[in-house]
């Protein structure tokens, strides 16, 4: 064995060789990991690159030391010195190897956490479905790759908030999870179901055939109609489905979602579990609604609404003034006076009726408070205010009502609240409780347009109403149509039997007034006795009649 072979077999050379192997393995492994990091966010990539450069610096430093030792050393170096030098360099290589392992583990953890965060950023935490952000990205891709080869379904669960109100939110969450599972199970390859938020969902269909899109939407509808369970509780949900077929003219995903939502709103107007396909007329109507809403809000701020008052009379037996019905009018800045028959239904649809009713109530209380202070005869009269059905679902309705009356020091017996049948029958139990409370604090409630809705006589016995108002459509024909006479007479008898007052609206001829007197009607209002009048005319009417 010659001197070189002997040197190569020394502990020094063994340490150097093992160290080089560790350094090479560390560098290769970390380089592979760095390539994986490049597919992730720039911040993570920069962090990994910095760590890699530091590690490579260590590796290069130790390799240089190895080379120096190898070039400046030889068999003549004492064995104990070479062993110590080799051990030191080997320990350095082990340090670099351990550093590479720890760094690699840390980066792997960071990569896993980043992947989890990326998933959470584009998926709904409750259902696991893609969220609005991801579905918009997928919509954008579909618009680029197949402009007319996709469809979007907007799904809304109707009255879902009642589940959360009647039970607990965790029950509602369980139902939403089941909805997500059913949507996912209904998808075909390439389709994507997403939760947009709340109880709204969207489905991206990879088809350009309207017929196929409708069929697949019907399949989704059938899946969602099956009963839902939470423990021992069983639920049935109703939904609205809006379908939009993609076109080459689509440029923005949010516009596609808005159009599908417009179709869904139309479906809900038609009834429960209906499917509506978007059309240009829907968009025109939606734009008109938005324009109306903007004008309506602006007019509320600018004071373009004003009140008029129609007198109400008791038949005792001659007409005797007992109060006024408060009516609202809109002096549109461009169109002039707009009929309530036009703006009230749209205000109901957009939810602005709540703001309008609050305005009417405050204005009526203000005006009537001023009248009571300056005209003592006014204190024996009342005023009535119409309220939308939407108020009955508002938990703050009564509190705000009492606050308004207190602000104007308005006696409760001076005001009558007029509610339609739909206001009571949409949620009769809640309506009955609120009406009981209103009566307990001295407020009267009149049931407006009686007979035109879907009255339930069983529930009517639980409603503490003060008055039944007979709709004008029945009064119009009481002098020519025997059936109208029977209906009006039956309503009057029903009101008296329940201890209520019967008031007929729309009295326009002396013959109608005479016939209502013969039937025993208690109160009347209409053009024959007085048209709706502005505030300035109230004093003269009250002075002549009181």
Short characterization:
The chain is of the alpha/beta class. Helices cover 56% and strands 17% of the residues. Strand 13, helix 16 (457-460) and strand 14 form a beta-alpha-beta unit.
Approximate shape = elongated
| Cα gyration radius (Å) | 39 Å
Mean pLDDT: 82
User: Termini distance?
Assistant: 138 Å
Structural class: alpha/beta
Helix content: 55-70%
- Biggest sheet details: 8 strands, mixed, barrel
Low-confidence stretches: 1-9
Strand content: 15-25%
- In the sheet with the most strands, the strands line up as 8-9-11-12-13-14-15-16
Tally of alpha and pi helices: 20
How many β-strand stretches? 16
Map the helices and strands:
Blueprint (H helix, E strand, L loop, with lengths): L2 H6 L2 H27 L4 H31 L6 H43 L10 H14 L5 E7 L3 H6 L2 H18 L5 E6 L2 E6 L4 H16 L2 E3 L2 E3 L3 E7 L7 H18 L3 E4 L2 H23 L2 E11 L3 E14 L3 E3 L1 H11 L2 H22 L7 E5 L10 H11 L7 E6 H5 L2 H13 L3 E7 L6 H4 L6 E4 L1 H4 L6 H16 L3 E4 L5 H10 L3 E2 L13 H8 L1
Helix pairs in contact: 2-3, 2-4, 3-4, 5-9, 7-8
Question: How would you portray this structure in words?
Answer:
- Helix 16 links the parallel strand 13 and strand 14.
- The N terminus is likely disordered.
- This protein has 546 residues and is of the alpha/beta class.
- The chain contains 20 helices and 16 strands.
- It has an 8-stranded mixed beta barrel with strand order 8-9-11-12-13-14-15-16, surrounded by 6 helices.
- Helix 2 packs parallel to helix 4, helix 3 packs antiparallel against helix 4 and helix 5 crosses helix 9.
Structural descriptors:
546 residues, alpha/beta, eight-stranded mixed beta barrel, five-stranded mixed β-sheet, 20 helices, 16 strands, elongated
